[in-house]
Each structure stands twice: as C-alpha cells, then as structure tokens.
Amino acid sequence: MRKWLMPIFIISIIFILGACAGNDESADDAGSAEGEAMNTEESSREMEMATSDSDSADAEYDQDTANEAAEQPNQVETNSANTIDRKIIYNGNLRVEVKNYNEAINELESQVEDTGGFIVESSSYGGSEDGLQEGSITARIPQENFQQFIKVVEDGNMKVVEKSVSGQDVTEEFVDLQSRIKSKRVVEERLLSFMEDAEKTEDLLKISNDLSKVQEEIEQITGRMNYLQNKSDLATVTIHIYENRVNIPNINEEGLNTWEKTKQQFNESINFLLSAVSGLFVFIAGNLPVLLIIAAAGLVAFRIVRKKNKKKE
C-alpha cells in the first residue's frame, strides 16, 4: 500500500503544476490580446487626427504650402542635362580683304542664303582719298551649317586676315529653367485652385497677388528659354570687309615707248595750234565792230600826220 502512495503523490503534484502553467499562459495570451487591441485603437485615433489635420490644412490657404511644389527637388530634371541635346551659342568674327567690295558683298549674301541663313545687319562706308570701300554684315546661320559657312568663306576669293570663333554652353541653364517653369506651373495650378475655393475677400486678394507674381516669373523664364533656344539654333557671324586694290602703273604712261610718246606730243602740238587759231578767229569775229572803228580812227590819224609832214617839207 505504501508503495502505491508515493507514485500517486508524485503524479498529483505533476498535474497540479501543469494546471498552474496553463493558467499563466492563458493569462499572458489574454494580456497580449488586450494590448494589441489597445494599440490598434490608438493607431486608429492617430490616423483620424492626421486625416483631420490634413483636411483642415487643405481647406485653409497657405502661400508656403503652395510654394512647396516649387521647392521639391526633381532628380530626373537635374540629370536630364546629361541626356538632352547640348545647347551651345556660337559666335564668329571674321575680317577679310577683297579686291572688289560690291562683288564680295554679293558673294557673301549668296553663301549665307545657301546655308539656310539670313542677314540681320549690313553697313558700308567709303569715299576715302584712295577710293576704297569697307563695311560689315551680320548674319544668322543654322548651327549645323556654321562650320561649313566659315570654311566656304575661307576657301573663297576673300583673304581672311583675322578669325575668331567662340561657343557658350548654356545646357545647364536651359535645363534648370525647364525645371523651374514646371515647378512654377504647379504653383500656378494650386493658386488657381485656392482662388476657386476662397470665400473671404482678403484671401482672394492675397491669392491674386501671389498668382500675378508667379505668372510674371513664368513669363520671364519663358522669355529667357526662348532667347537661349534661338541663340543656340542660329549662330551669329559678323564679317568685316575691307577693299584692298593695288594700282599698278602702266608702262606706256611712264614714257618708255618712244613712238607712242612722239605721237602723243605731235597730237598735243596740233591740238594747241588748232586751239590758237580757233581762239584768234573767235576773238576777231567777236570783236569785229570795235576793231573796225579802231582801224578807221588809226587810218584817219595816219593821213593827218602824213599831210603835216608834207607841208613842212
């Protein structure tokens, strides 16, 4: 009997300990479930509060909120400078010497037209003692034909005595302007939306002023972009033209040909005699009445003097 009491006692103790452990686990599970429920409820409350704050913020106009769109960085726009076509403004300056100014101008105008360009300015001046002309023209040439035009001028009949070509890369500025104008467009749309929802006159005036400033900035950015686009699409070339004729004296004019010199002197003598006879005839014919009176008076005086001399004898 005592042998059976000990095993029964041990088994009872084991069952009691097992029951206690089960109760502790149930209590822990219940506590955990209750904690999760509380956390869920708190999260729901926080979400409701955040939603409420967001709705109230959207319902109220704030210029800083509208400007946040313009301040957001756009990594794609920043890196696009490495992928788009480069925007380079080319300028050329040439100084050429020509033998005939008018022919050179016509030739340059034809070359500009052949490359798809056009002349925007032309000036000429001359009338110096040596009779030489000079001037300048400014042309806009498509960028893809810029180098070709320079080469055509160099290989032509004109002597290029001075040449300078420069280029300015404005790609980064152009991309930055693109990014800025997109941001300004977003701000403009938000301001227009705020204007539609505005109920107070004070808010409406404030939004209208901010909208005017944003639209003015958009116009300035657009104008700058158009300027850079035009300058990069069409290169500017200025050509200064100087006429340089060398007058070589004629050998015959130096008197080295004796026969030609003799003929020239004979002709000059004949011309002089003819001119003298012609002048004398004109003088006599033109003054004939006066000459006749003088001749008659002289004849009368001669006869009177002659009679006096005879009486004395």
Automatic annotation (TrEMBL):
Chain segments annotated as transmembrane: 272-302
Domain DUF4349: from-to ranges: 86-300
Domain of life assignment: Bacteria
Signal peptide: 1-21
Region of interest called Disordered, as start-end residue ranges on this chain: 25-80
Protein name: DUF4349 domain-containing protein
Acidic residues: bias regions: 55-65
Coiled-coil segments on the chain, per record: 204-231
InterPro entries for the chain: DUF4349
Key words, A-Z: Coiled coil, Membrane, Signal, Transmembrane, Transmembrane helix
